[in-house]
Amino acid sequence: MTQFITLSNNYAHYHSHVYFDKTTCEQARALRLQIIEQLNLEVGRFHEKQVGPHPSWSFQTKFTQADFAMFIAWIDTHRQNLTVLVHAVTGDDYMDHTEHADWLGEPETLNLAIFCC
Q1: Which of 10, 15, 43, 82 is found 20 to 30 A from 57 (Cα to Cα)?
Q2: Cα(9)–Cα(25) distance, rounded to whole angstroms?
Q3: If phi over 0 gives left and psi between -120 and 50 gives alpha, with beta otherwise, what is residue 15?
Q4: Helix (H, G, I), strand (E, B) or coil at 107
């Protein structure tokens, strides 16, 4: 484990995005399956391409304020070396991916231009 997330649990809904690449693809696939089987949270598609603002391959997990503490502790323990973006879902995509976001692991540079204009 590295740093614990500093984002406060102030929002009703959240997403996490686990980032991976060709060399960590199977590790990410196994982590995704663990989330589905153990946590009963909604997990999105397994993207082996860049999607939206995400600079790496990724998959998304949706969770709520009630799940926040449990999920953050669980994903930080199980992610091994994978980077995870965690952000609030407020309806303001730019703010959600900047001011309402934090990282477990090494932060990556998001393509925030997609939220402009």
Answers
A1: 10
A2: 30
A3: beta
A4: coil
Cβ-Cβ contacts under 8 Å for 81 (sequence gap 6 or more)? 24, 105
Residue-wise pLDDT for 55-70, tens only, equals 999 999 999 999 999 9
Residue 10 CB neighbour total at 10 angstroms:
10
- Comparing C-alpha atoms, which of 71, 75, 112, 117 is closest to residue 95? 112
List, for the chain, all residue ranges whose pLDDT scores fall below the cut of 70. 1-6, 117
pLDDT number for residue 5:
60
Q: Which domains does the chain have, with CATH numbers?
A: 13-115 (3.30.70.1240)
Give the pTM.
0.92
Q: In sequence order, what DSSP letters do the residues of 46-77 get, joined into one string?
A: -BSS--TT-SSEEEEEEEEGGGHHHHHHHHHH
The two three-digit tokens of residue 53, written as one number: 């603002």
Query: Edge to edge, what strands does the sheet with 13-20 contain?
Result: 42-43, 57-64, 13-20, 83-88, 101-104
Q: Rounded CA gap, 111 and 79, in Å?
A: 23
